[in-house]
Design brief:
Length: about 500
Amino acid sequence: MIIRNILRDRHLSYIRLYFGKYFHILIIISGVLVRLPLVSLPLNVYGTDGWRQADTASIARHFFLNGYRILYPQIYWGGNGPGYVETEFQLYPFSVSLLYAVFGEQVWLGRLVSLLATAVAFFLFFRLAKLMFPDGKSALWALAFLVFSPLYIRYSVAFMPEATVMLFYIAALFFFYQWAQNQKAGFLVASSVCIAMALLVKPTSIHIGLVLALFAIDRLGFAVLKKKEIWLALLISLLPSLFWYWHARDLYLEYGNTFGLLSGGDSKFGNLSVWLSPSFYASLARLELKWIFAAIAIVPFLIGIFLCLKQKSFRINVYGFITVGIYYMIVARYARQEWGIQYHVYMLPYAALCVGLGMDWLLRQSKSVFSRYALGAVSLLFFLASAYFYKGMLTPVQDGLAQCASYVQALVPSGDRIVASTTSVADDNGVANNYQEPQIFYYSQRYGWSLPADWHTAEKLIEYRNAGARYFVIYDKGLLKNNSVLSDYLKNNSIQVGPGIEYNCAIYRFN
């Protein structure tokens, strides 16, 4: 009887009748409960995120062990130095390390911090959606999409800063939208603080400035640029990051370690040849369809974008969609790759708001029970597609690096430095690439140098030996067996003490 009445009522008034005005709470609780099984998973369980999570967990561990020096994040692959590294402001791993002091070092604590940040982001997003869509129906659809989008499920419990930056990003949108409605200075200050925190956690979030600027000018006119509080808000948003990244640059200059943030070591940027390539846009479309829309939600999204163009108060979504598209072009080298899918998280709030608007419009156009059944089937297909990705996240994977690291920990004395081979290259077709492989270092708790695939020479090993390396660890058969010079050098200058390259873990102790 209840289901039949819901299907008959195109405005979903029976949902409000049976679940009351707190239906969004039910959606959020469901989203949190769905994610709880993911909290207990190891770092290396899914996709291409194992090395990123290992690096983040390494920094959290060093805070815990070395006195919570938040201005001096440390990694393991810093050679014979202390491993201080140029990176983003490490608010997330520092927060995790504080929990280590109470509960001990546990991976699930890092995932739990991400989940807590995500739960708060859900509430703030719904508040934003309610501001934008006062009737509440579009807001509920938008929230449901955001909560169960495959990309947000993946990064909402990752041992990475993505969940933290999404909290600040959504909070900045929420407070700025409120300010645009009533010009109360408190909302603008709150938005500026959230932008500042987002920039500290992930500098790629800087594009939100363009989104908010375009929306403010569209909503309030160019006179908004004459307001002193706007320029004060700009200073609040940018100054903390300027000071931090200046300091991070100094860490690189002194210690030589970087995540490719400002200094050498990596390049994320696109170029004219990429921007003119149809394959670039095809890759972006494929990744968006797969990870954000689960293919099914693209139709209500396109409807929602069209509807947003017609109403000024909705256009923040259009500006968000356009700006994130420009951002993809800037970070094209990562944005077009499956292993760079975390760069797409910023599309989530704009996509969700448009999907919510599009779903509500489709429901209002439904004139027959059959049409409403069809829409119900579309919704069900979206959740089933999300469930498919969710199942993949729960599926255990064989991680040879973690297994090899256990041998390294058992066979290499804790004070000795290692050189760890990696299949990544330092030069990717003329582009600087972050090649460091942190997983062997993290799981073995050993320090040393990471050796990229294009540096596998006897000269490099001699250089690292002279700097203090005592062991060489290599897990890829091709890198060793196809390099006779390296093989001969190791045969004449070391003893293999590990399981062996046939078992994907050769550990050479230098003579």
